[in-house]
Amino acid sequence: MATDKKTEEVYCVKYALTKGIVKVVGWEHGDKGRFMQNADGFYNSLSKAEWARTEPEALDLAEALRVKRLMSLENQLRKIESMEIKICT
């Protein structure tokens, strides 16, 4: 199935905050920007927000993920700081 697809190497940023940015080989699938790869017989699909063609694009996407995660953690911290612990009776 994948043999007639034009394969290319792209940067996967899906795990940028845990494993880092990873180069993967696969092909673009459909018109919505999905990227498919065949890893050991299993197909993996990446949405457009999870991969980039160039290293600078990948770094920008990873930075955006980092900022978004920091904002989420700050929001969680505010909620926890404002929380009042009570004994339920």
Biggest sheet statistics: 5 strands, antiparallel
Tell me the strand percentage band. 25-35%
Structural class: alpha+beta
Question: What is the helix tally?
Answer: 1
Tell me the series of helices and strands, N- to C-terminal: EEEEEH
Number of strands: 5
Residue-averaged pLDDT, rounded? 91
Calculate Rg over CA atoms: 19 Å
Q: What is the helical fraction, as a range of percent? A: 25-40%
Sequence stretches where pLDDT stays below 50 over 5 or more residues: none
- CA distance, first residue to last residue: 63 Å
The coarse overall form would be: elongated
Strand ordering within the main sheet: 4-3-2-1-5
Q: What would the keywords be for this entry?
A:
89 residues, alpha+beta, 5-stranded antiparallel β-sheet
Structure description:
- By secondary structure, this protein is an alpha+beta fold.
- The protein is elongated.
- The protein has one helix at 55-82, and strands at residues 8-12, 22-29, 34-39, 42-46, 51-52.
- The model has no long low-confidence stretch (mean pLDDT 91).
- The protein has a five-stranded antiparallel beta sheet with strand order 4-3-2-1-5.
- It has one helix and five strands, in the order E-E-E-E-E-H.
Topology, please?
Layout: E1 8-12, E2 22-29, E3 34-39, E4 42-46, E5 51-52, H1 55-82
Antiparallel strand pairs: 1-2, 1-5, 2-3, 3-4
Nutshell version of this structure?
This protein has 1 helix and 5 strands; from the N terminus they run βββββα. It has 89 residues and is of the alpha+beta class. It has a 5-stranded antiparallel β-sheet with strand order 4-3-2-1-5.
